[in-house]
Specification:
- The chain is an all-alpha fold and about 170 residues long.
- It has one domain: Glutathione S-transferase Yfyf (Class Pi), Chain A, domain 2 (Up-down Bundle), CATH 1.20.1050.10.
- The longest helix has 23 residues.
- The C terminus is likely disordered.
- This is Metaxin-1.
- InterPro entries: Glutathione-S-Trfase_C_sf, Metaxin_GST, Mito_Protein_Transport_Metaxin, Sam37/metaxin_N.
- One of its GO terms (biological process) is protein transport.
Length: about 170
């Protein structure tokens, strides 16, 4: 894979993430909107998730063309097919390495991680694309490894309390 191919892969996965979290009605209502409504303070939690969804739909329109909603089912099938192929190619490129270009992370690793980690860890009611990602153990290990290396407070370990942080 060349740099341009990685860029296309990231772009495709981004479109799939938008579709998965913001367009798929079941995922949006039961996961995305609910999560943001719980995380955003009152009264903003009543209207910001809808505004955020509108922005994501505009982004998808920008990258897929104005008529993307004319045949949303066809778009979903095409995105899913291309996305699965893309993940499989990324998995093959990663192979048994820890990072895409060797033993230390590069900007590509950060980009791919940012697109895959949320998808991998979300509890989605409709997770077709997520299931394909979970079927690729090296990509799952890639995300898990980065989470444990660079975000060790996520998971079982709780964040330090403000009172525990030394003040200078």
């Amino acid at each position: 894979m060349k740099c341009n191919e990685y860029s296309k892969s990231a772009h495709l996965i981004e479109k799939l993430n938008i579709h998965t979290f913001w367009v798929d009605a079941k995922n949006y209502v039961e996961h995305t909107r609910k999560w943001f409504a719980e995380a955003i303070p009152f009264p903003l939690n009543f209207f910001l998730p809808g505004r955020m969804q509108k922005r994501q739909l505009e982004r998808l329109q920008t990258v897929c063309g104005e008529n993307w909603q004319d045949d949303e089912e066809q778009l979903e099938k095409q995105l899913y097919r291309d996305g699965c192929e893309c993940l499989t190619l990324l998995s093959q490129r990663l192979g048994r390495k820890k990072f895409f270009f060797g033993d230390s992370p590069a900007s590509l690793d950060a980009s791919i991680f940012s697109l895959l980690a949320g998808l991998l860890n979300a509890k989605l009611p409709n997770g077709k694309f997520q299931q394909h990602l979970k079927s690729l153990p090296n990509l799952c290990n890639f995300c898990t490894s980065i989470l444990s290396l660079y975000f060790p407070w996520d998971g079982d370990v709780s964040l330090p309390k403000v009172a525990d942080i030394p003040q200078h």
